[in-house]
Amino acid sequence: MPRPRKQRRALEAIVSDRGIGRVFVAREAERVIAMASLLYTVSTAEGGKAALFEDLVVLPEFRGKGVGTALLRFVIAQARKEGVLRLTLLTDRHNERAHALYRRHGFVDSPMKAMRLQLG
């Protein structure tokens, strides 16, 4: 369920501090039609910079037109330029369309299991 206030606060934090991460957008004219974000960390397993690919959102009327694919390619290229050694993402378990998109771009299923502790 979208929570606009929380989402705005988080996006403002990312945009205001490039050490936290980056927000990428795709536009048609002046309208934002898709967005993606990376959040940075350091991986002891990789020995350097890693990132959580936090979001890839495309407006419904632009889905299936290559917008998400183009934005994903761009984000991966930018991560490489920035020295990111590993991208990790979470998807909804039943979102096969998203899984297929990520697999086409080299993402593989992880043997790791995601777990959460909600603190706020």
Question: Would you spell out the secondary-structure blueprint of this structure?
Answer:
Layout (H helix, E strand, L loop, with lengths): L3 H13 L4 E8 L2 E13 L4 E11 L8 H15 L4 E4 L6 H9 L16
Parallel strand pairs: 3-4
Antiparallel strand pairs: 1-2, 2-3
By DSSP (H or I, 4+ residues per run), the number of helices equals 3
Distance between the termini: 16 Å
- Mean pLDDT comes to 94
Broad structural category: alpha+beta
- The CATH fourth-level homologous superfamily: Gcn5-related N-acetyltransferase (GNAT)
Q: What is the string of helix and strand elements?
A: HEEEHEH
Shape: globular
CATH topology: Aminopeptidase
Architecture, CATH level 2?
A: 3-Layer(aba) Sandwich
- At the first level of CATH, what is the class? Alpha Beta
Strand order of the largest sheet: 1-2-3-4
